[in-house]
User: Fold these one by one.
Assistant:
Number 1:
Amino acid sequence: MNESFRADLHSHTTVSDGMLSPKALIDAAVEVGLSALSITDHDTVGAYTDETVGYAKEKGLQLVRGVEVSSFFFGESIHVLGYRIGEMKNFLERMRVRREGRNREILEKLDRLRRPISEEELGPLDKIGRPHIAMAMVAKGYVESLPAAFIHYLKEGAAAYCTGEIVETKEAIAAIQSEGGIAVLAHPHFIRKKRTIESLLELPFNGIECYYGSYPRKEEEKFITLAKERGLLITGGSDYHGHDNKHAQLGSSWVGKDDYEALIRAKA
Ligand code: AMP
Ligand code: ZN
Ligand code: FE
Ligand code: FE
């Protein structure tokens, strides 16, 4: 086994709500000594241009085509990671329209709360996420910090929160797998109830994101056991978004060569 092989399978770029461009992220991945990386932007594969793919190749970094899809399972927000995915054209177009509508709804709610933000201040509503709205709220002096924007306005159940069109977790899995992609349950660490995880795993997931962000290994063992019991793939990643306070550093969570190769070889 090659112990120095590390694959960070969860990261974001400026194509969604990350702070680094795809190229800058690839540079950063090489810098921290990763052998493989997956860019898993929210609801988009826009980072995977020929230029980005070529750049990773040039730098000797293995790039796994990925995405992180937002879905709901009995009303709870659940993220699904897709790896080795196809174009997912129809599904991602639906997600684009969903995001645009959801963001517009959030802005309408903020307006009613006398915290107006114009579309011009944000850029195209189909290409932004809640972190961009949070940043605009800080810039306009509505809140003191990004976490405060989420706590008071944007997190699930807060004053300006909106779900947008509900896309079920099983639909997300089906969209990923219908083109041969691998569907992985993202960060189960966030799911409070053990029963929810068990119900979720009755869906045809191919894997579980066992290693995540900066969680201590001890808390992750239960997910590794669960994956092994069920014959599911074990994945992991930092969910790096850039240098913010919420997310971990690039390369802080990763899988070794064995788990990586199992992912690369797996059939959906
Ligand atoms: P969206 O996909 O537009 O719903 O935004 C989701 C993103 O918002 C997540 O991936 C995080 O980057 C960020 N986020 C969610 N909850 C929080 C929070 N409580 N504090 C800071 N950022 C958050
Ligand atoms: Zn994000
Ligand atoms: Fe996520
Ligand atoms: Fe993520």
Note: The pocket of fe (iii) ion (ligand 3) is lined by residues 68, 79, 186-187 (CB under 6 Å).
Number 2:
Amino acid sequence: MTNPHHRIQRISDLKRRFSDAFPDDATPARICRAPGRINLLGEHLDYNGLPVLPATIQHDICIAFTRREDHVVRLKNADPQFSETEFLNTEDIPPSPTGSWENYCKAAVQAVNRRFPQTAYRGMNLYVDGNIPTAAGLSSSSAFVVACALAYLAVSEFELDKDISRIDLATLLAEGEHYVGTRGGGMDQAIILLGAENCACKIDFFPLRTEQVPLFEDHVFVAAHSLVKADKTGSALHRYNAGPAACRLLTALIQQAARRAFDDTIEIERLGDLWQGPLCLTHEEAETLFRSALLEEYFSIDDLSRLLNVSPQTIRDRWLGALEIPPKGLPLKRRARHVLTEFQRVERGRDCVLANDAAAFGELMNASHRSCAVDYEVSCAELDELTHVARQAGALGSRMTGAGFGGYTVSLVEKPALPQFLETVYQEYYQPRGITRDQIDKVLWAATPSSGAGYL
Ligand code: GLA
């Protein structure tokens, strides 16, 4: 939010709506804000401890909040699809049924409570107003978690950047969001808290580190909705969790291969450990290790039980949970190929942005989309079609963004070519699907990375 006039108006408007929503609360409300994000390169890497390259967007969630004298957290939302709700702030907050929006607030409050044992379990009134498209892969849920955490820190009299750093809060909330049932990595919370205007951010994990990368001056990233809902609390939750589960199995297989190759006491917690810490392998060495660990394309539970020397039940309990295994087995070799190649694309991508080489960056985006679609299998027909349309319309590169299975794509477009690009994509993708010219701005827009989360 760079325009000061717009900012002041938004604050006074939110305060007025807070008073309308909570007429009995005379305390002056404060306001916090958290942006959504697009990911430019590095999909499904964060939970492996490997780097990603996202950027914030102009869409955000604002919360007007006050402290209550009891321990009740009351939530009201400007969007009527999220009905009014409340919960009691206690040491162990029981989750509401899967899919309930208050779970994200509970996740934030519980995480802050765990971090600050001296907390007073304060209550608060929250009025939420957001414009990040939901169920679209733009991290509206993590933005909500971050905004709730900022409100709760403030009512608890903890100061951001003093009592807790942004890095520590991002780490805390990444873990805290597992409360809702998704085993996500830490990309979303980190970019939301540490993103900056007109920058992408290269994020490394374990420990969390960020590097601001100023974006191309003559190109923009255009975000386009496939119009397929990607609701991470619905059916996509299981599909999403399949990624981390496959990678945990890969980690077990790789640990075994590393013990054979190097030292039989090596512990590998996640795939990213191969490139850092005591092992510190080169890409070539890591590839050799993967080849020696993955002799087949597909792995059944019996194969895994034999290879890891544990019972089939242990494979289920320890790694897979309720995950469905396709009849051919798990395609672990392809999953590994995505992780290895995507990691290298992030490193090259960062260098391309710094060298102002948009054409090479675009190629990496195209390769990343292929890898997400073919090797990691998180795309869908509409995302494939929309990225194809975008390339035909002149984008230097186009790919799905976020967890996948629907939601948004991002495309890299030269600024002078933007109007023609938007028109062609409209005619080829949206018009046939009944989207009118009045509605197009809602689903097709140029991203302008905004500042990270904070108080207004
Ligand atoms: C979701 C998760 C992130 C990340 C992406 C895929 O957005 O919340 O942690 O895993 O999917 O890159």
Note: The CA atoms of residues 48 and 271 lie 5 Å apart.
